[in-house]
Design brief:
Two copies of one chain form a homodimer. By secondary structure, chain A is mainly α. In chain A, 73% of the residues lie in helices and 0% in strands. Chain A is built from ten helices and no strands. The first copy, chain A, starts with 14 loop residues before the first helix and ends with a helix. At the A-B interface, helix 7, helix 8, helix 9 and helix 10 of A face helix 7, helix 8, helix 9 and helix 10 of B. Chain A binds a DNA duplex through helix 2 and helix 4.
DNA sequence: TAGCTTTTGAGAGTTACTGTCAGAAGACAG
DNA sequence: CTGTCTTCTGACAGTAACTCTCAAAAGCTA
């Protein structure tokens, strides 16, 4: 899911929310429209020519904005694909877990909840992103770095909850492992066209890794 | 350790080996010398000015070669930092493990062995690399991608050994988890100046993750 | 020494990105 | 609805990492 940072968040929150969030000024509405125009022009071109063969100038032209404007909306070409609002969802999901619950279960559930939500709303887009993730090294690289960011955030949260040090090896290793397994699971799921139930898959994967580690 | 691919391997094998491998022609010796000159010029500049503030032109000038030549030796600036010969070592290490051994133990030992070797020979360089890994996003991104390559290789090996499918979720999740924990451990170790015993640290981390997953 | 192959440097071109600036276009007060 | 104030936009110039091509230089081989 390329757990990642949020976009150049204009006021705050996800595009979806903002669209539904009623009466924005004309300026804000235009910005949102431009953002969507750029992104959809880009994805169209990516589909037709591939990611790397598509230049920012082409995207800008297709979206009817200047290249400067492109970079005002997306700091890098990668951000077109990367930016999502997964992190804050995961954070609140994790905060909502009951206190006594085993760590791995908390993390797993905190990830599955938002994942379901996003999949319900934008399944096809997620699949497309995962395809780009698979095929474009630059995207993969960027997504992995963003995943590390998410991991650090999660360590902080779990540190609060458990009293363990956020930069200690124990938490860091745990979070890194869960994130790695999750990311691999989502990738696996996407490779198979997104047919299976992601939550089940993740539970299986974590269970199986647990058994191997315990040996 | 940025488990990664090998450099633009001139004939074959590591720089170290090649240096000791006796009577190369003048051409080969010069190439090796150039390669080392470029890398050491680069690391000098990185130390003084930082990675991103150092341009390829500067490196080329400092190493007394043309920019074109730089790119002949290192396809990207990142490759200066990334390329090592860890993968083949790990591969043969893994092949050498006894048949009945639990998977995680095999993988752990296969990683620790070469790690020790490399640390004994180039501890300072490893620490410097890890510092760049921490501080430079481009390096981190690249190293993470290379780690995925190593993971895929490892899946293949373990598939041979176990009969499980190399692209199945079970193996992939397991390998991803072990790699993530290992990478986090090496990072942790490097952050603390490389004082602790890496093998112990790794065993602890894997043990602790195993306990959390088992709950 | 002569001829073949590899390596090198020069130079021109592409692309992602950065920074600056003037003008256009919403927002807002009176 | 007019003038002012703020924000958004496009044009332009610049940088740095690559890529490609080609001719000269240097090592190799007979």
């Amino acid at each position: 899911m390329t757990p990642g940072n949020s976009p150049t968040r204009t006021p705050a929150g996800s595009e979806l929310e903002e669209l539904l969030a009623a009466p924005l000024g004309l300026r804000e509405r235009k910005k949102l429209k431009t953002r969507r125009a750029i992104r959809s022009a880009a994805f169209g071109l990516f589909r037709d020519q591939g990611y790397e063969a598509t230049t920012v100038d082409q995207i800008a032209a297709a979206a009817d904005v200047s290249p400067s404007t492109f970079f005002r909306y997306f700091p890098t070409k990668e951000d077109l694909v990367i930016s999502d609002d997964y992190d804050p969802l995961m954070e609140s999901g994790l905060r909502a877990r009951p206190a006594g619950e085993p760590l791995v279960a908390s993390v797993r559930e905190a990830m599955v909840g938002p994942l379901r939500q996003i999949l319900a709303a934008e399944r096809d887009e997620v699949l497309l992103r995962m395809q780009l993730y698979r095929e474009v090294p630059a995207i993969r690289a960027r997504a992995l770095v963003e995943m590390q960011r998410s991991s650090a955030m999660m360590c902080e949260l779990l540190a609060e909850r458990t009293g363990l040090p956020a930069d200690g090896l124990e938490l860091r290793a745990l979070v890194a492992a869960v994130m790695a397994v999750s990311s691999e699971t989502v990738q696996f799921w996407a490779e198979r066209g997104g047919e299976a139930d992601l939550a089940d898959l993740l539970a299986d994967a974590i269970g199986s890794v647990g058994r191997s580690f315990a040996q």
